[in-house]
Specification:
about 475 residues, alpha+beta, 2 domains
Length: about 475
Protein backbone atom coordinates (compact mmCIF):
# COMPACT_ATOMS: atom_id res chain seq x y z
CA UNK A 1 0.00 0.00 0.00
CA UNK A 2 1.21 3.50 -0.80
CA UNK A 3 2.74 5.25 2.22
CA UNK A 4 1.15 8.69 1.96
CA UNK A 5 3.35 10.27 4.64
CA UNK A 6 6.49 9.01 2.91
CA UNK A 7 5.42 10.48 -0.44
CA UNK A 8 4.40 13.80 1.07
CA UNK A 9 7.61 14.14 3.10
CA UNK A 10 9.80 13.40 0.06
CA UNK A 11 7.89 15.91 -2.06
CA UNK A 12 8.28 18.47 0.71
CA UNK A 13 12.02 17.78 0.95
CA UNK A 14 12.37 18.14 -2.82
CA UNK A 15 10.52 21.46 -2.74
CA UNK A 16 12.51 22.80 0.21
CA UNK A 17 15.83 21.50 -1.10
CA UNK A 18 16.77 19.85 2.19
CA UNK A 19 15.88 16.81 4.29
CA UNK A 20 12.77 17.00 6.48
CA UNK A 21 12.31 15.26 9.79
CA UNK A 22 9.83 12.36 9.83
CA UNK A 23 10.15 11.34 13.47
CA UNK A 24 8.98 13.15 16.59
CA UNK A 25 11.25 11.15 18.87
CA UNK A 26 14.60 9.41 18.71
CA UNK A 27 13.98 5.86 17.57
CA UNK A 28 17.41 4.34 18.13
CA UNK A 29 19.87 4.48 21.00
CA UNK A 30 23.27 6.10 20.44
CA UNK A 31 25.76 4.66 22.86
CA UNK A 32 28.57 7.02 23.86
CA UNK A 33 31.10 4.18 23.62
CA UNK A 34 29.88 2.96 20.21
CA UNK A 35 32.52 1.54 17.85
CA UNK A 36 32.68 2.91 14.30
CA UNK A 37 34.11 0.54 11.66
CA UNK A 38 34.58 1.52 8.02
CA UNK A 39 36.08 -1.28 5.89
CA UNK A 40 37.04 -1.18 2.21
CA UNK A 41 37.33 -4.42 0.27
CA UNK A 42 39.52 -5.10 -2.73
CA UNK A 43 37.67 -4.91 -6.04
CA UNK A 44 36.60 -8.39 -7.11
CA UNK A 45 37.44 -9.87 -3.70
CA UNK A 46 34.30 -9.81 -1.58
CA UNK A 47 35.84 -11.66 1.38
CA UNK A 48 38.73 -9.28 2.00
CA UNK A 49 39.47 -6.01 3.73
CA UNK A 50 42.06 -3.87 1.98
CA UNK A 51 41.98 -1.03 4.51
CA UNK A 52 39.84 -0.34 7.56
CA UNK A 53 39.28 2.66 9.84
CA UNK A 54 38.16 1.91 13.38
CA UNK A 55 37.49 4.14 16.35
CA UNK A 56 35.02 4.99 19.09
CA UNK A 57 32.36 7.66 18.80
CA UNK A 58 33.90 11.13 18.56
CA UNK A 59 37.47 9.80 18.42
CA UNK A 60 40.02 9.79 15.57
CA UNK A 61 40.36 6.63 13.55
CA UNK A 62 42.95 3.89 13.85
CA UNK A 63 43.77 2.68 10.35
CA UNK A 64 45.20 -0.61 9.19
CA UNK A 65 46.02 -1.42 5.57
CA UNK A 66 47.49 -4.43 3.80
CA UNK A 67 49.22 -4.05 0.42
CA UNK A 68 47.41 -7.00 -1.14
CA UNK A 69 44.69 -8.78 0.91
CA UNK A 70 44.91 -11.81 -1.39
CA UNK A 71 47.96 -12.87 0.62
CA UNK A 72 46.37 -14.82 3.45
CA UNK A 73 48.99 -14.11 6.13
CA UNK A 74 48.78 -10.35 5.59
CA UNK A 75 44.99 -10.49 5.57
CA UNK A 76 44.95 -12.50 8.79
CA UNK A 77 47.20 -9.90 10.44
CA UNK A 78 44.56 -7.27 9.67
CA UNK A 79 41.78 -9.51 10.97
CA UNK A 80 43.71 -10.08 14.20
CA UNK A 81 44.33 -6.35 14.58
CA UNK A 82 40.66 -5.49 14.10
CA UNK A 83 39.49 -8.49 16.12
CA UNK A 84 41.60 -7.38 19.08
CA UNK A 85 39.78 -4.04 19.19
CA UNK A 86 36.36 -5.62 18.82
CA UNK A 87 37.19 -8.22 21.50
CA UNK A 88 38.34 -5.53 23.93
CA UNK A 89 35.19 -3.52 23.36
CA UNK A 90 32.95 -6.57 23.83
CA UNK A 91 34.72 -7.45 27.09
CA UNK A 92 34.25 -3.92 28.42
CA UNK A 93 30.54 -4.06 27.64
CA UNK A 94 30.25 -7.47 29.28
CA UNK A 95 31.91 -6.18 32.45
CA UNK A 96 29.60 -3.14 32.52
CA UNK A 97 26.50 -5.29 31.99
CA UNK A 98 25.54 -3.43 28.79
CA UNK A 99 25.82 -4.32 25.12
CA UNK A 100 28.15 -3.32 22.27
CA UNK A 101 27.02 -1.09 19.45
CA UNK A 102 28.82 -1.00 16.09
CA UNK A 103 28.20 1.71 13.52
CA UNK A 104 28.85 1.18 9.81
CA UNK A 105 28.51 3.68 6.96
CA UNK A 106 25.85 1.81 4.95
CA UNK A 107 24.24 -1.56 4.31
CA UNK A 108 27.04 -2.48 1.90
CA UNK A 109 29.42 -2.66 4.88
CA UNK A 110 26.92 -4.91 6.66
CA UNK A 111 27.00 -7.33 3.73
CA UNK A 112 30.79 -7.39 3.76
CA UNK A 113 31.06 -8.08 7.50
CA UNK A 114 28.28 -10.66 7.28
CA UNK A 115 30.19 -12.57 4.60
CA UNK A 116 33.43 -12.32 6.56
CA UNK A 117 31.84 -13.43 9.83
CA UNK A 118 30.20 -16.43 8.16
CA UNK A 119 33.53 -17.48 6.64
CA UNK A 120 35.91 -16.74 9.50
CA UNK A 121 33.94 -18.26 12.36
CA UNK A 122 34.73 -21.76 11.03
CA UNK A 123 38.44 -21.06 10.57
CA UNK A 124 40.59 -23.92 11.89
CA UNK A 125 44.01 -22.42 11.23
CA UNK A 126 43.93 -19.27 13.36
CA UNK A 127 41.95 -19.21 16.61
CA UNK A 128 42.15 -15.42 16.92
CA UNK A 129 40.69 -15.00 13.45
CA UNK A 130 37.99 -17.54 14.31
CA UNK A 131 37.13 -15.57 17.43
CA UNK A 132 36.87 -12.41 15.35
CA UNK A 133 34.46 -14.16 13.00
CA UNK A 134 32.29 -15.26 15.93
CA UNK A 135 32.07 -11.72 17.30
CA UNK A 136 31.19 -10.37 13.87
CA UNK A 137 28.49 -13.02 13.58
CA UNK A 138 26.80 -11.75 16.74
CA UNK A 139 26.40 -8.26 15.29
CA UNK A 140 25.49 -9.28 11.73
CA UNK A 141 22.93 -11.86 12.88
CA UNK A 142 21.28 -9.22 15.04
CA UNK A 143 21.02 -6.75 12.14
CA UNK A 144 17.83 -8.18 10.52
CA UNK A 145 16.02 -8.24 13.88
CA UNK A 146 13.62 -5.33 14.25
CA UNK A 147 14.43 -3.02 17.13
CA UNK A 148 17.99 -4.33 17.55
CA UNK A 149 20.62 -1.87 18.76
CA UNK A 150 23.82 -3.86 18.12
CA UNK A 151 24.62 -3.04 14.47
CA UNK A 152 23.54 0.31 13.06
CA UNK A 153 24.25 1.91 9.69
CA UNK A 154 24.62 5.66 9.40
CA UNK A 155 22.36 5.75 6.35
CA UNK A 156 19.74 3.61 8.07
CA UNK A 157 19.71 5.77 11.21
CA UNK A 158 19.35 8.99 9.21
CA UNK A 159 16.61 7.53 7.01
CA UNK A 160 14.76 6.46 10.13
CA UNK A 161 14.47 10.10 11.21
CA UNK A 162 14.64 12.12 7.97
CA UNK A 163 13.28 12.01 4.42
CA UNK A 164 15.08 13.37 1.36
CA UNK A 165 13.86 14.49 -2.04
CA UNK A 166 15.37 11.54 -3.89
CA UNK A 167 14.58 7.86 -4.31
CA UNK A 168 15.00 5.57 -1.31
CA UNK A 169 17.76 3.53 -2.96
CA UNK A 170 19.79 6.71 -3.47
CA UNK A 171 19.70 7.35 0.28
CA UNK A 172 22.17 4.48 0.73
CA UNK A 173 24.95 6.79 -0.47
CA UNK A 174 26.05 8.45 2.77
CA UNK A 175 27.66 11.42 1.06
CA UNK A 176 24.51 12.27 -0.88
CA UNK A 177 22.39 11.79 2.22
CA UNK A 178 24.55 14.23 4.20
CA UNK A 179 24.17 16.83 1.43
CA UNK A 180 20.40 16.65 1.87
CA UNK A 181 20.90 17.05 5.61
CA UNK A 182 23.10 20.14 5.17
CA UNK A 183 22.63 21.56 1.66
CA UNK A 184 25.30 24.06 0.57
CA UNK A 185 24.20 27.68 0.57
CA UNK A 186 23.68 29.29 -2.81
CA UNK A 187 23.94 26.04 -4.75
CA UNK A 188 21.34 23.72 -6.22
CA UNK A 189 20.98 20.71 -3.94
CA UNK A 190 20.65 18.25 -6.83
CA UNK A 191 23.94 19.45 -8.33
CA UNK A 192 25.62 19.09 -4.93
CA UNK A 193 24.17 15.59 -4.53
CA UNK A 194 25.43 14.58 -7.98
CA UNK A 195 28.92 15.79 -7.07
CA UNK A 196 28.82 13.89 -3.75
CA UNK A 197 27.84 10.68 -5.52
CA UNK A 198 31.12 10.73 -7.45
CA UNK A 199 32.98 9.94 -4.21
CA UNK A 200 32.86 6.33 -2.90
CA UNK A 201 31.01 5.93 0.39
CA UNK A 202 30.63 2.19 0.72
CA UNK A 203 33.04 -0.77 0.73
CA UNK A 204 34.38 -0.43 -2.81
CA UNK A 205 36.55 2.24 -4.38
CA UNK A 206 35.94 3.99 -7.70
CA UNK A 207 36.69 1.78 -10.77
CA UNK A 208 38.71 4.54 -12.44
CA UNK A 209 40.73 4.95 -9.25
CA UNK A 210 41.33 1.20 -9.14
CA UNK A 211 42.45 1.04 -12.76
CA UNK A 212 44.59 4.18 -12.88
CA UNK A 213 46.08 4.46 -9.40
CA UNK A 214 45.58 1.44 -7.15
CA UNK A 215 46.15 -1.45 -9.55
CA UNK A 216 49.58 -0.24 -10.79
CA UNK A 217 50.79 0.16 -7.21
CA UNK A 218 49.56 -3.29 -6.17
CA UNK A 219 51.08 -4.86 -9.29
CA UNK A 220 54.47 -3.28 -8.58
CA UNK A 221 54.30 -4.45 -4.97
CA UNK A 222 53.54 -8.03 -6.05
CA UNK A 223 56.33 -7.88 -8.62
CA UNK A 224 58.81 -6.80 -5.98
CA UNK A 225 57.57 -9.53 -3.67
CA UNK A 226 58.05 -12.22 -6.32
CA UNK A 227 61.62 -11.17 -7.04
CA UNK A 228 62.28 -11.20 -3.28
CA UNK A 229 62.99 -7.50 -2.88
CA UNK A 230 64.36 -6.14 0.38
CA UNK A 231 62.03 -5.48 3.27
CA UNK A 232 62.73 -1.76 2.96
CA UNK A 233 61.56 -1.70 -0.66
CA UNK A 234 58.44 -3.72 0.19
CA UNK A 235 57.64 -1.37 3.05
CA UNK A 236 58.03 1.65 0.75
CA UNK A 237 55.70 0.17 -1.86
CA UNK A 238 53.19 -0.83 0.83
CA UNK A 239 53.21 2.73 2.21
CA UNK A 240 52.38 4.08 -1.26
CA UNK A 241 49.32 1.80 -1.43
CA UNK A 242 48.18 2.96 1.98
CA UNK A 243 48.77 6.59 1.00
CA UNK A 244 46.21 6.41 -1.82
CA UNK A 245 43.67 4.38 0.19
CA UNK A 246 43.89 6.33 3.45
CA UNK A 247 42.05 9.47 2.19
CA UNK A 248 39.23 7.30 0.87
CA UNK A 249 38.62 5.41 4.11
CA UNK A 250 39.10 8.53 6.24
CA UNK A 251 36.43 10.36 4.25
CA UNK A 252 33.97 7.52 4.87
CA UNK A 253 34.90 7.35 8.57
CA UNK A 254 34.44 11.09 9.05
CA UNK A 255 31.11 11.02 7.20
CA UNK A 256 29.89 8.23 9.51
CA UNK A 257 30.94 10.20 12.59
CA UNK A 258 29.26 13.28 11.09
CA UNK A 259 25.98 11.40 10.61
CA UNK A 260 25.98 10.31 14.25
CA UNK A 261 26.72 13.88 15.37
CA UNK A 262 23.76 15.17 13.35
CA UNK A 263 21.43 12.78 15.14
CA UNK A 264 22.82 13.82 18.52
CA UNK A 265 22.45 17.51 17.69
CA UNK A 266 18.74 17.06 17.01
CA UNK A 267 18.31 16.45 20.76
CA UNK A 268 15.16 14.41 20.26
CA UNK A 269 13.57 12.75 23.25
CA UNK A 270 13.87 8.96 22.98
CA UNK A 271 10.73 6.93 22.41
CA UNK A 272 9.11 5.76 25.63
CA UNK A 273 10.09 2.11 25.29
CA UNK A 274 13.65 2.60 24.01
CA UNK A 275 15.01 1.45 27.37
CA UNK A 276 13.10 -1.81 26.89
CA UNK A 277 14.75 -2.35 23.50
CA UNK A 278 18.15 -1.71 25.09
CA UNK A 279 17.44 -4.10 27.94
CA UNK A 280 16.53 -6.82 25.44
CA UNK A 281 19.76 -6.14 23.53
CA UNK A 282 21.77 -6.49 26.73
CA UNK A 283 20.08 -9.83 27.43
CA UNK A 284 20.88 -11.10 23.92
CA UNK A 285 24.51 -10.04 24.24
CA UNK A 286 24.88 -11.63 27.66
CA UNK A 287 23.42 -14.89 26.33
CA UNK A 288 25.79 -14.85 23.35
CA UNK A 289 28.91 -14.23 25.43
CA UNK A 290 27.94 -16.84 28.01
CA UNK A 291 27.49 -19.41 25.26
CA UNK A 292 30.94 -18.60 23.85
CA UNK A 293 32.56 -18.90 27.29
CA UNK A 294 30.98 -22.32 27.75
CA UNK A 295 32.59 -23.45 24.51
CA UNK A 296 29.44 -23.78 22.43
CA UNK A 297 30.35 -23.35 18.76
CA UNK A 298 28.18 -21.44 16.33
CA UNK A 299 26.36 -24.00 14.16
CA UNK A 300 26.54 -24.01 10.40
CA UNK A 301 22.80 -24.76 10.27
CA UNK A 302 20.11 -24.47 12.90
CA UNK A 303 18.45 -27.58 14.22
CA UNK A 304 14.65 -27.70 13.90
CA UNK A 305 14.25 -26.75 17.55
CA UNK A 306 16.72 -23.85 17.48
CA UNK A 307 15.24 -22.62 14.19
CA UNK A 308 11.77 -22.56 15.77
CA UNK A 309 13.10 -20.63 18.76
CA UNK A 310 14.91 -18.16 16.51
CA UNK A 311 11.84 -17.58 14.35
CA UNK A 312 9.67 -17.00 17.42
CA UNK A 313 12.23 -14.53 18.80
CA UNK A 314 12.28 -12.54 15.57
CA UNK A 315 8.49 -12.38 15.39
CA UNK A 316 8.29 -11.25 19.00
CA UNK A 317 11.02 -8.65 18.41
CA UNK A 318 9.12 -7.30 15.41
CA UNK A 319 5.91 -6.99 17.44
CA UNK A 320 7.77 -5.27 20.28
CA UNK A 321 9.56 -2.82 17.99
CA UNK A 322 6.36 -1.82 16.19
CA UNK A 323 4.51 -1.36 19.47
CA UNK A 324 7.38 0.73 20.86
CA UNK A 325 7.12 3.08 17.87
CA UNK A 326 3.34 3.25 18.08
CA UNK A 327 3.41 4.32 21.72
CA UNK A 328 6.48 6.54 21.42
CA UNK A 329 6.45 8.41 18.10
CA UNK A 330 3.67 10.74 16.93
CA UNK A 331 4.59 10.51 13.26
CA UNK A 332 4.42 6.72 13.34
CA UNK A 333 1.06 7.01 15.10
CA UNK A 334 -0.28 9.12 12.21
CA UNK A 335 1.10 6.66 9.67
CA UNK A 336 -0.72 3.81 11.38
CA UNK A 337 -3.92 5.87 11.59
CA UNK A 338 -3.85 6.67 7.87
CA UNK A 339 -3.23 2.99 7.13
CA UNK A 340 -6.34 2.08 9.13
CA UNK A 341 -4.57 0.07 11.80
CA UNK A 342 -5.66 2.48 14.54
CA UNK A 343 -9.27 3.30 15.40
CA UNK A 344 -9.75 6.99 16.18
CA UNK A 345 -13.14 8.51 16.86
CA UNK A 346 -15.71 9.93 19.27
CA UNK A 347 -17.34 7.95 22.06
CA UNK A 348 -21.06 7.47 21.72
CA UNK A 349 -23.61 5.78 23.97
CA UNK A 350 -21.40 4.55 26.85
CA UNK A 351 -23.38 2.04 28.93
CA UNK A 352 -22.53 0.48 32.30
CA UNK A 353 -24.68 -2.54 33.15
CA UNK A 354 -24.75 -4.31 36.51
CA UNK A 355 -24.54 -8.08 36.09
CA UNK A 356 -24.32 -8.93 39.79
CA UNK A 357 -23.59 -7.02 42.98
CA UNK A 358 -19.86 -6.88 42.12
CA UNK A 359 -19.83 -7.44 38.39
CA UNK A 360 -20.39 -4.80 35.73
CA UNK A 361 -20.32 -4.76 31.95
CA UNK A 362 -19.13 -1.65 30.14
CA UNK A 363 -19.86 -0.99 26.47
CA UNK A 364 -19.56 2.00 24.19
CA UNK A 365 -19.47 2.87 20.50
CA UNK A 366 -16.71 4.67 18.62
CA UNK A 367 -17.94 6.86 15.75
CA UNK A 368 -15.30 7.59 13.11
CA UNK A 369 -15.00 8.96 9.57
CA UNK A 370 -11.67 7.29 8.77
CA UNK A 371 -11.40 6.43 5.07
CA UNK A 372 -9.21 3.42 5.80
CA UNK A 373 -10.13 1.15 8.69
CA UNK A 374 -9.04 -2.44 9.13
CA UNK A 375 -10.94 -3.75 12.17
CA UNK A 376 -13.19 -6.76 12.56
CA UNK A 377 -15.32 -8.37 15.19
CA UNK A 378 -13.36 -10.08 17.96
CA UNK A 379 -10.33 -7.84 17.43
CA UNK A 380 -8.82 -6.84 20.76
CA UNK A 381 -7.58 -3.25 21.04
CA UNK A 382 -6.02 -1.07 23.71
CA UNK A 383 -6.54 2.58 24.59
CA UNK A 384 -3.31 4.17 23.38
CA UNK A 385 -3.52 6.99 25.92
CA UNK A 386 -3.76 4.44 28.75
CA UNK A 387 -3.22 0.80 27.66
CA UNK A 388 -4.67 -0.47 30.92
CA UNK A 389 -7.99 -0.31 29.06
CA UNK A 390 -8.54 -3.29 26.77
CA UNK A 391 -11.63 -3.75 24.60
CA UNK A 392 -12.96 -6.28 22.13
CA UNK A 393 -14.91 -5.28 19.03
CA UNK A 394 -18.44 -6.70 19.03
CA UNK A 395 -19.86 -5.07 15.91
CA UNK A 396 -18.85 -2.85 12.97
CA UNK A 397 -21.52 -0.89 11.07
CA UNK A 398 -20.90 1.30 8.06
CA UNK A 399 -23.20 4.01 6.76
CA UNK A 400 -21.47 5.86 3.96
CA UNK A 401 -18.39 7.57 5.37
CA UNK A 402 -19.60 7.12 8.95
CA UNK A 403 -18.51 3.97 10.76
CA UNK A 404 -19.75 2.89 14.17
CA UNK A 405 -17.62 0.37 16.02
CA UNK A 406 -19.18 -1.19 19.12
CA UNK A 407 -16.80 -2.45 21.80
CA UNK A 408 -16.93 -4.30 25.10
CA UNK A 409 -14.44 -3.39 27.81
CA UNK A 410 -12.35 -6.35 29.01
CA UNK A 411 -9.90 -4.53 31.26
CA UNK A 412 -9.64 -1.11 32.85
CA UNK A 413 -13.18 -0.75 34.14
CA UNK A 414 -11.92 0.56 37.48
CA UNK A 415 -8.38 1.77 36.74
CA UNK A 416 -9.38 3.80 33.66
CA UNK A 417 -13.15 3.89 33.79
CA UNK A 418 -15.85 4.13 31.18
CA UNK A 419 -15.27 6.95 28.67
CA UNK A 420 -17.72 9.84 28.67
CA UNK A 421 -19.83 10.83 25.65
CA UNK A 422 -18.03 12.83 22.91
CA UNK A 423 -14.63 11.87 24.31
CA UNK A 424 -11.95 11.37 21.67
CA UNK A 425 -10.27 7.97 21.87
CA UNK A 426 -7.59 6.13 19.90
CA UNK A 427 -7.51 2.35 20.03
CA UNK A 428 -4.68 0.21 18.68
CA UNK A 429 -2.45 -2.77 19.30
CA UNK A 430 -1.07 -3.76 22.68
CA UNK A 431 2.00 -2.10 24.25
CA UNK A 432 5.33 -3.97 24.19
CA UNK A 433 5.35 -7.08 26.35
CA UNK A 434 9.04 -7.72 26.99
CA UNK A 435 8.36 -10.85 29.03
CA UNK A 436 6.16 -12.56 26.47
CA UNK A 437 9.13 -14.27 24.79
CA UNK A 438 10.02 -15.91 28.11
CA UNK A 439 6.57 -17.45 28.40
CA UNK A 440 6.63 -18.40 24.74
CA UNK A 441 9.97 -20.18 25.07
CA UNK A 442 8.67 -22.21 28.00
CA UNK A 443 5.68 -23.36 25.96
CA UNK A 444 7.86 -24.19 22.96
CA UNK A 445 10.31 -26.10 25.14
CA UNK A 446 7.53 -28.35 26.36
CA UNK A 447 5.96 -28.81 22.94
CA UNK A 448 9.29 -29.50 21.22
CA UNK A 449 10.53 -31.93 23.85
CA UNK A 450 9.87 -34.62 21.27
CA UNK A 451 10.67 -34.00 17.58
CA UNK A 452 7.61 -33.29 15.49
CA UNK A 453 6.60 -35.94 12.97
CA UNK A 454 8.04 -33.92 10.06
CA UNK A 455 11.56 -34.47 11.47
CA UNK A 456 11.33 -38.09 12.60
CA UNK A 457 13.54 -39.77 10.00
CA UNK A 458 11.20 -38.62 7.27
CA UNK A 459 8.47 -41.03 8.40
CA UNK A 460 4.98 -39.62 8.06
CA UNK A 461 2.58 -41.13 10.62
CA UNK A 462 -0.55 -42.89 9.49
CA UNK A 463 -3.64 -40.74 9.34
CA UNK A 464 -5.90 -41.36 12.31
CA UNK A 465 -9.43 -40.00 11.68
CA UNK A 466 -11.14 -38.37 14.59
CA UNK A 467 -14.72 -38.79 15.56
CA UNK A 468 -15.46 -35.06 15.34
CA UNK A 469 -18.28 -34.44 12.86
CA UNK A 470 -17.86 -31.88 10.10
CA UNK A 471 -19.58 -28.59 11.02
CA UNK A 472 -22.55 -27.58 8.94
CA UNK A 473 -21.24 -24.03 8.45
CA UNK A 474 -17.49 -24.36 7.89
CA UNK A 475 -16.90 -20.59 7.56
CA UNK A 476 -18.63 -19.87 10.84
CA UNK A 477 -16.58 -22.59 12.53
CA UNK A 478 -13.33 -21.03 11.26
CA UNK A 479 -14.42 -17.57 12.43
CA UNK A 480 -15.22 -19.08 15.81
CA UNK A 481 -11.60 -20.09 16.25
CA UNK A 482 -10.48 -16.44 16.29
Amino acid sequence: MLDILNVVSRLLAFREGRAVRIASNQRIAIRPDALVICPIAMAGEDTTIHIVACGHLGQPADIRCVPDPRYRDDQYDLFEWLGERVERYFEECQQDGTYPQIWLPSSGAVGLLDTLGDRLRFNRENLRVKRFGELLSYATERFPVEGQQALVTATGALRMHFATGQQEAEDEHLGALLVWMRPPAGRNVLAAVAAAEDLPMSVKTDPDFDRNELDPLVSRYNGARKRKATSAELATRASRIEAVLRPVVLRIYEATQDAISLLIQEQLDPIVHLDGLEAREADEFRSFMTSRELGHALPLRDSPKSAAFRLASREDAADGARAALLYGDKVHFERERLAGRILCGIVENPVRTRLSPRRFECRFTVVTEQRMLHVRRRDELYLLADPRMKVVITDVRRNGQIKRVSVLMLQGKRSVGLPVPDQEVSLGSSPPDWNRIIRLRKQMRDRLAQPVWTHQNGQVPDASPTGTPKPADLLAAVEGLR
